[in-house]
Automatic annotation (TrEMBL):
<keyword id="KW-0723">Serine/threonine-protein kinase</keyword>
<protein>
    <recommendedName>
        <fullName>non-specific serine/threonine protein kinase</fullName>
        <ecNumber>2.7.11.1</ecNumber>
    </recommendedName>
</protein>
<dbReference type="GO" id="GO:0004674">
    <property type="term" value="F:protein serine/threonine kinase activity"/>
</dbReference>
<comment type="similarity">
    <text>Belongs to the protein kinase superfamily. RIO-type Ser/Thr kinase family.</text>
</comment>
<dbReference type="InterPro" id="IPR000719">
    <property type="entry name" value="Prot_kinase_dom"/>
</dbReference>
<dbReference type="InterPro" id="IPR018934">
    <property type="entry name" value="RIO_dom"/>
</dbReference>
<feature type="domain" description="Protein kinase">
    <location>
        <begin position="52"/>
        <end position="255"/>
    </location>
</feature>
<keyword id="KW-0479">Metal-binding</keyword>
<dbReference type="Pfam" id="PF01163">
    <property type="entry name" value="RIO1"/>
</dbReference>
<dbReference type="InterPro" id="IPR051272">
    <property type="entry name" value="RIO-type_Ser/Thr_kinase"/>
</dbReference>
<keyword id="KW-0460">Magnesium</keyword>
<dbReference type="GO" id="GO:0046872">
    <property type="term" value="F:metal ion binding"/>
</dbReference>
<keyword id="KW-0547">Nucleotide-binding</keyword>
<keyword id="KW-0418">Kinase</keyword>
<dbReference type="InterPro" id="IPR000687">
    <property type="entry name" value="RIO_kinase"/>
</dbReference>
<dbReference type="InterPro" id="IPR011009">
    <property type="entry name" value="Kinase-like_dom_sf"/>
</dbReference>
<keyword id="KW-0067">ATP-binding</keyword>
Length: 255
């Protein structure tokens, strides 16, 4: 056994031991996501000064877990870890094929996941540069993405829109539609999975998240995805009392 790898694993496991995770469910998830390669990746990130402590779960998805990280200067981070074994590779292939930015052997599962994570990093960066409110991406490496933490100073994450109705639904709706328009015309992207589950209500500011599946506007499926995003947003905001037609929203976005 390589002694350097062994020492790195011990150091990282010591860092990970500071997580305040107490439930059986969280412990089982932890053992699932912290495989050998992920441990090495996290160790390199920690050793490079990007991360100091992992401190519990923010959210758990089908393919990835988002954990709360703490930088050495004390500010919070969001650490998204994609699970290699449980990722939906067919879905990843569907979204990544046809994107000219990525040339990857889609039969190689680990390579595909790494490209998927890098895709989310680049989509977030592109969106941020276009003036869209998204978490600032900090670094992407292998199956780990470190981003800006969206929440309060005490480390409480902002709730998703589905769980926190906006005080002014009309204003929130217009904000989301404006973000979709900027995304399309300035970032040249379509989100592809936009709904109340992928929007945070951060003190009434609508923050777009989960952009791994987002595609460039000249991608063969971009228009199909845009139509679906519009339907999802209309349906979600209808629950808050906002009424809008598909054609009306589409016209606002496409101009």
């Amino acid at each position: 056994m390589d002694p350097k790898v062994s020492r790195a694993d011990r150091d990282l496991r010591k860092m990970l031991s500071e997580k305040r995770i107490k439930s059986v469910e969280d412990r089982s998830v932890g053992s699932e996501i912290f495989d050998q390669q992920t441990l090495k990746t996290l160790y390199k990130m920690a050793n490079s000064g990007y991360l100091n402590i992992l401190n519990g779960a923010i959210s758990t998805g089908k393919e990835a877990n988002v954990l709360k990280g703490i930088h050495e200067d004390g500010h919070f981070l969001a650490v998204k870890i994609y699970r290699i074994n449980t990722s939906d590779f067919k879905k990843m292939q569907y979204y990544i094929q046809g994107d000219p930015r990525f040339k990857v052997r889609t039969t190689h599962k680990r390579q595909l996941v790494y490209a998927w994570v890098n895709k989310e990093y680049r989509n977030l960066k592109r969106s941020l540069e276009a003036g869209i409110v998204v978490p600032k991406p900090i670094i992407s490496q292998n199956n780990v993405l470190i981003m800006e933490f969206i929440g309060d100073d005490d480390g409480n994450p902002a709730p998703i829109l589905r769980n926190k109705a906006p005080e002014n639904p009309e204003k929130a709706f217009e904000s989301v539609v404006t973000s979709m328009k900027k995304l399309y015309h300035e970032a040249k992207l379509v989100h592809g999975d936009l709904s109340g589950f992928n929007i945070l209500n951060n003190n009434e500011e609508m923050v777009i998240i989960d952009m791994s599946q987002s595609v460039v506007v000249d991608h063969p499926i971009s228009r199909e995805l845009l139509e679906r995003d519009i339907d999802n947003i209309i349906l979600d905001f209808k629950k808050f009392g906002v009424s809008a037609s598909h054609e009306e929203v589409k016209q606002k976005i496409l101009g």
